[in-house]
Structures are given as C-alpha cells and as structure tokens.
Amino acid sequence: MKITLLGAGNVATQLALGLRKAGHHIVQIYNRSNEAGEELAHTVGASFTSNTKKLEDADVYLIAVKDDSIADVASQLKVNDKIVAHTSGTKKKELLSFSSSNFGIFYPLQTMTKLSKVDFTEVPMLIEGNDEKTLAVLEELAASISKRIHRVDEQQRQWIHVAAVFANNFTNHIYSLSEHLLAEHDLPFEIVKPLIFKAVDSLHHYSPSELQTGPAVRGDRLTVEHHLRLLAREPRLQKIYQMLTESIVHANKK
User: Fold this and answer.
1) Residue that terminates a domain, selected from 137, 152, 167
2) Number of C-beta neighbours around residue 22 at 10 A
C-alpha cells in the first residue's frame, strides 16, 4: 500500500520503518517541524511536507502525533474516501470523520522510542474501523507487520490502554524508584536486575496473581513495619510502599 505518515515522533518513526520493511511504499511524511520530518522522510525514502494542503495521494494516511494534536491535524486533512487512521490508545476514531468517509484506529500496543529496534511481528495491533471495508483494509495492513491482530471497540481499547499504563509505565517508574533507593546507599541497580528478569520471564508460564511474593502477601507485618521505618526520610516512597502493600493484602484476601 501507499502510506503517508503524519508525525515524526517515536510511533511515527517506528511505524514508517516497520511498514517500509514489510514492503509498503511510504509516500510522504508530514510534520510541523522540518528537521524531524525531513530526517524521517530521508530515512524511509519519502517526500516531506509541513503543509497539509500539499499532501500527495496515498491509500492510507496514519496520524501518529500526540493525542492532544490529533483533532487539530485531522481538521486540516481532507482526503475524501481514502482511509485515515490514528494511533492513539484513548482518542475516538470519530475525530477523523471530517478528514475522510473512511476512518479508524491503527494502535500498536508497545512502548517505542526513535532509537529502539521494534519487532512488530510480536506487537499487538488494535484495529477499529467505521465500517467493515475500512476495518478489513486496516487489518490487512496490520497483518503485514504483526502476527497479533485484535479487532476491538473503543471501550475495549481504552481499557487496554489503562492496563498497559499499569503494566509498563507504572512498573518502569517502580524500577526507577528502586534505582534511586539503591543509589542513595551507593549500590548498583544491576544487583536487582536478575530479580526483574526472572519475574518477567515467569510471566510466560504463570499469571501475575500466581507469582506474587513478598512480605505483604505472606502477612509479614514486622518486615513491612521495618521497611516503613527505613523509608521514614522518604515520605513519598513510604506512602507508595504502604499503598501497594495494602493493595497486595486486599488482592490476597480475595
């Protein structure tokens, strides 16, 4: 297919690379910033524009910009019956109804940076369309790069996005708090990495609820109280520790 990407950030960059690798023709990159847009366009052999009125003909237009910018970009885009989709985990597909009579969602459920190497074959692709024809085309496009295609409705996609924040963004923040605590006592973060890797690897075989360990699930009140005393000079971390401990205890009671 002939694809135009609107955006040149992390998701736009990885999608452009992944779709090009799958054999699609990246026709054009649109971006407000010339430098980032021109760089991505050069990388994938596409033309560049910072003017939506100068967009070239394509089969699918993918809007991969910040959530708060989707409506603004879509309001400048008018491509009749060509397919327009955005990559947000939360925004409605109806934001694109002005742009085209065929619109939908093309949401890759993966954290991405411009520098990371993304294996799209294992990335879940969440697809929506305003009609069956649009849905089928977006599904075909997704299937060309991924083995994990999911037709979802808006509410399902939003719940998946919330769950993904817990599974990825929050856990990564917890890792950073662990790193901070260790650094405060001249200890390397590497010392807990085997623990992290083992926990993640175990998810291939068990559910998270089956893997829960630690003083909270054991009901080891003395250890919990000792940890809270150690965190007395870090009230924010102490509060987080206490909140998560209570959550684990509550879940274990169920």
Assistant:
1) 152
2) 15
